[in-house]
Amino acid sequence: MDIQESAACLLLRSPHLSVSHILHLLDISDSEFRKFLTSNAQIANLVDKRRTGELKPYISQPKECKVCAEWFMPYASARHCSDECLKTSLIQET
Ligand SMILES: [Zn+2]
Hints:
Layout (H helix, E strand, L loop, with lengths): L2 H10 L6 H8 L3 H10 L1 H12 L10 E2 L6 E2 L10 H11 L1
Antiparallel strand pairs: 1-2
The structure holds zinc ion.
């Protein structure tokens, strides 16, 4: 996957951006984007989800770190506030 393709993948996950806006941002032409659609299942899937309205914005909610009990805004499914705490939790589990 080239850089434009993976960037398109990332941006397509955001329901706030329209496809045409994304193409403009990444300087991708319609024909290039159609190529991505046929060659990249991930992109095709995201475009499908956009059409059916399944794409939901990821809502980040503060979580309490399992190690230091500090509140933080998790990225994706992170359960720890920092790499240090993640390492600590892995040590504690073993
Ligand atoms: Zn922590």
